[in-house]
Amino acid sequence: MVCFQLFALAPYLTGEWFQAAHSSAAKFHWGLPMAVEHQRLRKWTRPFIPKRGPGRVLRLVRYRGAVPKQRRLGVIRRLCEQAALYLLNGLHPGEYYLYGLEDSLVSWNHKKAFLSEERAPSYWDALAPQRYRVLLANKLVAHRLLWGWGLPVPRLYGVFDPVCGRTESGAPLRSADDLRRWATVGPVAEFVLKPIESGEGHLVLPLTRNGELLEAPNGVKYSWDGLVEFMTDAKNLRRAYPIRPEPPATFLLQERLRRHESLSSFATETVCSVRVLTLLNMAGNVEIVAATFKLPNLDRGVDNLAQGGMAVSVDLGTGVLGEGVLYRTLPPRRFRAPLGGTREFVGFRLPFWDEVLDLAKQAARAFSFVRAIGWDIALSKAGPFILEGNDTWSVPMLQQSSGRGLAQGALKEAFLKLRTAKFRRG
Fold first, then answer.
1. Reduced DSSP (H G I as helix, E B as strand, rest coil) percent helix, strand, coil of the chain, to 5
2. Helix (H, G, I), strand (E, B) or coil at 156
3. Is position 143 within any domain?
């Protein structure tokens, strides 16, 4: 028994679990090192990694999580489970507490189904081949493909680029004068500015024309020259593309969608979307694996969780909302109403739910060369619209909101078969 306990503590005493998490996730969309993701992982797991040695174990022993005391497992049992889950799935202590796995009411089989961020790149590599990822990562390419297949997407007005930007009608879109002329001739009263390849809502800016100025949801106003400066500023671009040596100053100008009126009781003016994870299984059928409703907490114009949004669980069969969680927040807390609000969203049925699922399945069939995709589908006044598809589908968001692991069922079956086939070809 003593030997097993020492074995259970070994990963934390040596720090090997964290080094493994860093070395395993070696590539992103085009083989670039995931240095930035590693920095984020270090930041939110800092309570568990003070330094190597006994200090690490003391911090783990003292941490209580969010589960009530009467249901919380004992210290030795928690440490042993964490070591076992690390060996099985690469799950580190931060994730153990993030998903509430210290709860004695949660079965061991349920705990084993949680996918770690260390192992997630292996799933992405098997289910989303590297050669196809650019078709989703590049928002212009993805928009063209979805539009070509007749799927509902926000209208594209043009692409701003200092060298080769142009409107959909072929007029240049490379300077402040070009932008002013385009908006006046349209005329366009409001639009959304979106970087061509960045993620997590960085530099996404909904704008409304107010005379000669452009106003963002947070009240900041831009002139046309100021907007060009915003899009070409090196500091802003490095924030959106932290691992690109020469980030592109290329932005899509798209139609601005407005949220469905039924969401007004607990949502801001920002359009809300649902992340729907689809899987093209080994039989060639599309399955809905998981879904999360993204609720903006601050009116920043985007509902990305990295920008302060809340992930709310959704019943796949009915579209009824459950409780919400803040992304990667320890200790985890569950909410029944938005931050700063009193109107509960628990029990609310999302509009167009059947249409949302059908649209996600249509998009998955269109992108059949990528087996697992996380679709962001907006719930607008005019109906559901596909905002984008994600080949890296935010494992913590889907698992944390639903309380259910992804490393099980058809998703795990497809991963194991495709990984085996890849090894055989290699």
1. 40, 20, 40
2. strand
3. no
Looking at the structure, tell me whether residues 274 and 161 fall in a common domain.
Answer: no
Question: Contact at 8 Å (CB) between 229 and 313?
Answer: no
Q: What is the CATH number of the domain that holds 346?
A: 3.30.470.20
Alpha-carbon span 420 to 34, nearest angstrom: 25
Domain span including residue 184: 155-254
228 and 269 together in one domain:
no
- Treating both helix axes as pointing N-terminal to C-terminal, what angle do 75-89 and 2-14 enclose, rounded to 10 degrees? 60
Q: Does residue 319 lie within any of the structural domains?
A: yes
- DSSP letter for each residue of 83-118: HHHHHHH---HHHHHHTTTTBTTS-HHHHHTPPPTT
Q: What is the pLDDT of residue 81?
A: 92
CA dihedral (35, 83, 394, 294) in degrees, to 10, reads -130
Dump pLDDT digits (tens) for 117-155.
889 999 998 998 888 888 888 999 999 999 999 999 999
Cβ proximity of 180 and 253 under 8 Å = no
DSSP structure string for 289-323: EEEEEEE-SS-SS---GGGT-EEEEE-TTT-BEEE
Q: Which amino acid is at 9?
A: L
372 is a domain residue: yes
pLDDT in tens, 183-240: 988 788 899 999 998 777 788 888 999 888 999 887 889 999 999 999 998 888 888 8
Whether residue 59 is found in the same domain as residue 102: yes
Residues 6+ apart with CB under 8 A from 187: none
* Six-digit token string for 298: 């601050």
- CA–CA dist 305, 397 (Å, integer): 8
Mean predicted confidence (pLDDT) in 70-94? 89
- 103 phi and psi, to 5 degrees? -75, 125
Overall domain count for the chain:
3
Using the 3D structure, point to which of 209, 224, 254 is the last residue of a domain. 254
291 and 180 share one domain: no
Residue 21's pLDDT band (cuts 50, 70, 90): very low
